[in-house]
Fold these 2 entries.
Entry 1:
Amino acid sequence: MLTLKFKNTYINHWFTLAGDDERKGRLSNIDMYLKDFYYGEKTLEAAEVKMQKTVLNNLLSKTDFDLVIGGDLSNQLGTINTCMRDFPKSFLGIYNACSTFVEGLLLASNLIMNNNVDKICVLTSSHNLTSERQFRFPVEYGALKACYTTSTTTAAVGAIISNIPSKYKIISATIGSVVDYGITDVYNMGAVMAPAAASAINAHLFNMNKRAKDYDIILTGDLGTLGIELLNEVLKRDFKISTDNIYDAGTMIYKESQNKYTGGSGPSVLPLVLFSKIIRQKRYKKILIVGTGALHNPTLINQKNSIPAIAHVVEIEVES
Amino acid sequence: MTYKELVEKMTPKENRWKNCIVAFLTGGVMGSISHLLVSCFDVQTMLVIWIVLSSILTGFGVFDSLVDKLKMGIVIPITGFSHSVTSASLEYKKEGLVTGIGANYFKLAGSVILYGIVSAAILAGLRGLLCLL
């Protein structure tokens, strides 16, 4: 796998917006909450578009930027494409399922390092009900769910990357490759993504000549409680890496009492937890974020294919 | 051990017996109420009451949480059928009467109709054969 090293790339600002279930959860320090799933709009898709617009407008009030790199879970990136109609900025739409934000971050870092662009906004969002409809059943349909599944988080997150020094420096990144271990259970995305996360972490450590213990925290995206157990097991079994500093962002969002199965999922989970919790804690100086994406396509699954997965890794250093 | 076997081993198992017993009890209770309704009115009225009731509960967003608690006991009877068409039409109403509701109304219930007709035809054929013998 390819590892890129960056110079002079920093995270300057961010804006986090989350839904009502997330407000009732374990995270504090989120910039804005929604009262309901509709956010004053007539359709759920329009609500997600408005969420993205709110994030962009808030970031624009802090600083201007030249390019937006972003994606979400909707078909043909429908929501982010609709959102960007109202912003006359250069735009790159990207999709790697739930690892989209990390993918955007490493692309932005590369452009910034080469001095091609001054400031880039990396944007992502996910909405519990729009994903539910797209990947599973109608919103009101009471389908029985497996106890080990994850629940899509409602949130939109944007971050500004530039070469203006700040406390948060992007050091390096590893671009993952698609792996498929033959899992076909659409309710078990943790199991689908765990091997992808393991191989990306292993590749990053090998290419950077580091050990897992060199990082204060390795934060995976949305594996859930089952997925993180599987990741530790695969790391130990296949790559001989044994470490106790791997945590999953999806498991940090909700309280047990909220009945969210094994945790939150979606591309916004990792940046939401990173910006509202991890990056603010003084004990985490060297952070490795691992965006994990289950490249799930309902048509291909119905045609009896297994689910491929990908994981990208970005290393962030926080100066004190 | 392959990865699939590892996943199989580590994935928590659903408590199928508990789910079965809950579904058996709720389905049984529904059956008893239906019996009362039939003795008060007639079969058609009983069916209409269940269909309307589950549609309304779906509209208010209550039915899906009831399924969570009461399991398949309320999905297998006609309430489940009514719930599936109502939830699909709620979902697609913004996409228009023809391309939205019309095209997706039986998205979930289509299989029930198709295979219901197919199995009814096969059983009717068998019965016809038995009568001939």
Entry 2:
Amino acid sequence: MSKITIYINGKPYKVEPGQTIMQAADKLGFHIPRLCYHPKLSIEGACRVCIVEVEGMKNYVASCAFPVSDGMKIRTNTLELRQARRDIVELLLDNHPQDCHVCERNGTCELQRLSYSMGIRNRHFEGQRKDYPADESSEAVIRDPNRCILCGRCVRLCSEIQQIHNLSQAYRGFKTVVMPAYNIPMKDSVCSCCGQCVNVCPTAAFLEKNHTKEVFAALNDPSLVKVVQFAPSVRAAIGEAFGLEPGHNMEGQLVAALRRLGFDYVFDTQSGADLTITEEASEFLERLQGKGKLPMITSCSSAWMKCMEQFHPDLIDNISTCKSPMSMTGAMVKTYFARRLKVSPEKICSVAVMCCTAKKYEAARPELMVDGLRAVDYVVTTREAAWMIKSAGIDFLNIIPEPFDEPLGISSGAGVIFGTTGGVMEAALRSAYELFTGQTLVDIEVQAVRGFEAIKEGKVVMDGQEIRVAVTHGLGNASKLLDMVREDPKRYHFIEIMGCPGGCIGGGGQPYAGVNAIPLDEDALKKRAQVLYDLDRHRTIRRSHENPAVQRLYKEFLQRPLSPISHKYLHTHYKAKEPRGVIPRS
Amino acid sequence: MMEYAITICEGPTCIGRHADRLRAILLEELAKRGLKDHVRINISGCLGMCHKGPFLVVNPGYTIYGGVTESDIPVIVEEHIVKDRPIARLAVQEDHLFNRFYRIFGDVGFFGKQMRITLRNCGIIDPENIDDYLALRGYEALAKVLTEMTPQQVIAEVKQSGLRGRGGAGFPTGLKWELTAKQPGPEKYVICNADEGDPGAFMDRSAIEGDPHTILEGMIIGGYAIGSNHGIVYIRAEYPLAVRRLEIAIQQARQHNLLGKGILGTNFDFDIEIRLGAGAFVCGEETALIQSIEGARGMPRPRPPFPATSGLFGKPTLINNVETWANIPVIILEGAKWFSSIGTETSKGTKVFALAGCVVNTGLVEVPMGTTIRQVVYDIGGGIPGGKRLTAVQTGGPSGGCLPESYLDTPVDYESLAKAGSIMGSGGMIVMDETACMVDVARFFLEFTQSESCGKCTPCREGTKRMLEILERIVQGKGRPGDIERLERLGNMIKKASLCGLGQSAPNPVLSTIRHFRDEYQQHIEQKRCPAGVCKALLTYTITDACVGCGACKKVCPVGAISGTKKEKHVIDQAKCIRCGQCYTTCKFNAISRS
Amino acid sequence: MQTTTDQNRQQLIEYINQLPDRPYRDSYLIAVLHKAQELYGYVSRDAMDLISSQMQIPTAHIWGVVTFYHYFRTQPPGRYQISVCLGTACYVKGAAEVLQAFKDRLGVEAGQITEDGLFSLLEARCLGACGLAPVCMINDKVYGQLNPDKVGRIINDLRKAAR
């Protein structure tokens, strides 16, 4: 289509037709202020912060929703408009706690930034403010309606992207509140704990349940052995919390920083990932030989596990019984490592730094207890870990990188790529192929399962048998894929599902988007993924079962994959849970 | 053989005054005297002259009995039916326009200042009997359209008529039809917006209760014109009688092959279903209404896309309100040229108003566009009772504004009302005399819109709340300097920045009263005085020399603010007084003054 | 034996089953909620759960809709609806203590209903009976010059009357 001319603030510009004023303006270097808009979500047009003047229109129009047309004359910055926008943001502030200095989002809050850039330096309209209790019932996510500005991003994300539909606006007008059905506590809801609401919330209406206080207390307890592990995707993103652009590997810095925080041992969740793959590949082969249901579906994403138990319990038998890398690592810390250290497992404080809020829920699952103890005592998110490092006065960016501790510090390239969508599948195929055929997979990089498409499909031929696999990320996509499986159960042999868009690198516990960045931005996710793929490429060991630490574990403790002892410590079970979730037939 | 026909008005007000009981007693009375076969009992929708109800209209003779009580029934039967002697003392006597109307049964002509087009059958036909409607050229327009006209010709006729939407902003109806008709695809919807939510407005309800077939006929014609087979009436659940009559009408229309497959032997299919609202004023906004029909929260969506291109279920949708639809059959039958001869340059046809407040005749009034407010209030409404002075006329309900006496010659048309700071709206018209406080009136309407705000967009959700708080403090005597300016600043912003019509018009009652009655606001804020004596907190009660010292006020005062010895003048401690007014109402000697 | 709830559920399911089929069956949610309120006297959580599973509509969505529209009640109305006036006159004469007495005696908060369904408690703005302050209104009857003792007697009398 040929370009059209629009006028912004009196000057003509050639733009593509069929886009909104905001889209056109963005490309021309006009960043119209905005709040409820999110490129991945449906257009709400609710906050009215992005209003502009269009000649011939009696009222302002929301630039996020209004399409450009030829000859359109747009004004983005008249005095009247500036005052209107300013007043709109002030109205949001008027019904919002005035306590930025004690707020978790201080400095990362979009409302705070807007308030500054709108030039709100005095107040005109203060009045009654809403007053609702915060819901801290969930292990993972806190909902605080008082900080909510009703932009509706969380509601749209939870229903449109994750298709969990746990949140809705309830009541109306000034009394509108975002809540789960019947205002039940989040812990009793269908919330998957994925934490994406935290990611997209412009303020602090959704936050992860903070465990830094407990971790600091443990770090100050001399009677405890303090052990920490961190996930692959944490190293690929934590730099952003310190002002770096996405795409920096901060593995060594994080190890060093965690030691300076007071941890005695710093382990790599990737080591547990290699263990997971060794078990999971063996489990897959068993199922392929008729012992168990196909397709086998991965179980390492805790949000996906919770979602599965509430939304898809018909598929429980298809789920791999393997625990997640975090829980396997934690189990080995409280058993194998405790024995090696000759300390009682009660005396070990096991902490995990995760990209994920749902891991907080996972760590508390009674099914995952190890000899009556939690495998992981505390989970902190990437964000919380970054705060702890800052709070303890550690110069994270200039610290000299350090290596992990033995014995759970060594990992293969397969363990690294766990952190991005498709990684588990690729890692599993590398090992399964070899276990099945006795030969080494030559083309080790399985391109078909890389990338950010909603549903990726791939095929591998093992000894003449075609193995069909599928990979998806985001719980909404998962539901679509599972419907395909229900329709044709023989369509795939092996499926990887990650609860968050992009996999763990896009987890609900990752650093907040910086100024002018957008949460869930695909470019940022790609850069994080690239960190992991680069790490893999530079490893000499790229297959999980070749990891010497894993091999030693089997030799000294677990005997062999799927042995009774590995079943005891590395496998779990699932059951249908209430309340049952409902996915609307679209 | 039928010798008499008695019509009982079962409009909402008359039902409130037990018109249905009257009907039962009448039937009983007739049965007792063996007259059942000689008298046909009809029911009708609202006659319009609500203040005189309930009514029995006896034909032939057009005798209208008003304010009928149960004990009147045997008398009417005995005297009028048996002895054929109409009872003058019970009949509505005054030569009221409404009265003359019934002498020209079924015609659609001029009646002084009133002109009934959309209400042409209301009060005349039995709304539960399709034969009544058919007898008055009912469905003739549909037959004409289906057999003689192409959809394009129908649209051209509606366009040419100059009809504009009666629900609010006055968008040209024909243009809306044309836009919807132009959209490709077989799946389109026709919607009748009967979600009348203005407090005090009952035009749509009366129109449906009195003449449901007109609405159906209009919708079927609309469906034919735009190429739709599916009509929906979205109506308030609070209107059970209107719903029932619509259901009956739809059933009857289906039986007569006026709805369903192959209407009147043509290959045009169309059917209508009823969807109930559930108590949300904002659902009168068309995108919110669509959300509600789709089973969601009634929250408006940004436009474009307009419903004409993407409406119900994402399909092209034609939405008009009850009154707009009721005009369609008349336009088709009488022609666009005739229709466009009524009204003003830009506003054609008539408008129905629910006239209420401090006016002699309250009820439904249908007048040609361009009639002045003065004519409606004085010529039809009979002026202000009790020799009081008119202060303001409020039109457009909570979305409209208050016009002062000096604006009484404003003609009722879209542009003139908007220019004066009000709107046509769906047609509420409330007359206020000097006992009304304009600040309090503004507060009342804003309280309504504020509680009906859907909560989606910031200006409406948060802004109307702040405006209401400012108004509340003004009427409580806590107004601050700058409050008027704050109201104007917020109001103007909310008007221009809100997502939907509700927010865009919510400040109107406030802005129009500030514009026309600014001094009243100033008196409230600066002198803490309410000139109309309405705002309780601004009143001062004092005991005058007329006090005989009976002590009644002292006894009734809930806070012990009154003191004094028996038979001596009492005093009110202003610091303790909470201005509840109990003393004022209790005093038998007019010894307490309120200012 | 079939309970009322079972009968209600069955009727609600029958109502849902006779609705026109997809693609737009979800759009009948409000009609179904009207039906539920007609059957149960209010839109019960049981009804919402049932509608959710029968119509494949998430409960959060249903809850959002039910709370949006004024017409729907999520609590059964009590047989006696007690509105305690909190207007200025009543307030200075001890309406807060009266309200507290109701709360204590009934074991509910304002806006709630007692377990036996007999009483619902509401806060009201001025009822216009300032001379009798503090007052409450129970269904259509005004009770004046209240104090905590009197509250106890009123509740006892109503309980007796209900038997």
